[in-house]
Amino acid sequence: MTATRFQSFRFQGDTSGPKLIVLGAVHGNETCGTEAIHALLEELKSGVLKVKAGTLTLVPVTNPEAYDQRRRAVDRNLNRFLGPKAEPADYEDSIANALCPLLRDHDVLLDLHSFHTPGDPFALIGPKNNQECLEPFAFQERETKLALHLGAKRFLEGWMEVYENGVRQRKASKQPSSAHLLSTDYGVGTTEYMRSVGGYGVTYECGQHHDPEASKRARYAIDQTLKLLGIIEGVPIPPPKDVELLKLVDVVDRLDNGDTLVRNFNSFDRLKKGEKIGIRGNGAEVFAESDGFIVFPNPGASIYAEWYYFAVESDRSMWI
Ligand SMILES: [Zn+2]
Fold first, then answer.
1. 112 CA to centre of ligand 1 in angstroms
2. What's the per-residue H, E or C state across the chain?
């Protein structure tokens, strides 16, 4: 299978400026970005809206086969282990080979997603400026400013660090594990790839799948980004003041089919230190190690895959 149906639309301003790429449906069942991008495309094609500076590239459907089937993925999660593949082994590899050169050719990425369980929108941002080998970065200020303008009040950081922690814990415990959870490279999705090739980017989780508000939020986020970067005319609406930044600090794997979460958690449910989270198949209880938040709980996770993540309030400020 090849990525022949991967389509992008590029609009060029009269003057130079930032090069922005906006992605919808990286996960095929997350259609809010696609709807927002299609509406925007109509306005750009008809001339209602005009790109005045820089470059805008729109990819309404990043994973076309998964989108047609309204599935998250065809063979594997496109938003992991992302990079050009000399020998594509599956459908998502073929998409990666179309997508990665395009990302490399831009400065800024806005990646639009939605989520399964009820909850408020949130955005994932990258690390502080640093020169470590895990995820070196120099655009913290620009990326944070962009994230603040998208419309979300909640932000999440620490993805690559928690992923690396998970890899380290799994190797140390010598527990059996899925091969992909033993490689830090597997943690690389669209924004991590963008940062690795000298750009910056934000993943915006706009709301629950099929919530009509989610596509409105996606469109708001695109318009805000275009104004902030000076790509279209206008001044962005100032960010909300009451924002919170959480940091992922731990990932806990499901180790047995009997491992059960004690209730139906939603992402960002608040937990007290010592609060019971789950019971292992062997009867051992799992508790919150500090005050914090459960994130991405997956009660039906495969064995040796991520059961849930744990986040705490970050000591980093969004206002820099
Ligand atoms: Zn997604």
1. 8
2. CCCCCCCCEEEECCEEEEEEEEECCCCCCCCHHHHHHHHHHHHHHHCCCCCCEEEEEEECCCCHHHHHCCCCCCCCCCCCCCCCCCCCCCHHHHHHHHHHHHHHCCCEEEEEEEECCCCCCEEECCCCCECCCCCCECCHHHHHHHHHCCCCCEEEECHHHHHHHHHHHHHHHCCCCCHHHHCHHHHCCHHHHHHHCCCEEEEEEEEECCCHHHHHHHHHHHHHHHHHCCCCCCCCCCCCCCCEEEEEEEEEEECCCCCEECCCCCCCEEECCCCEEEECCCCCEEECCCCEEEECCCCCCCCCEEEEEEEEECCCCCCC
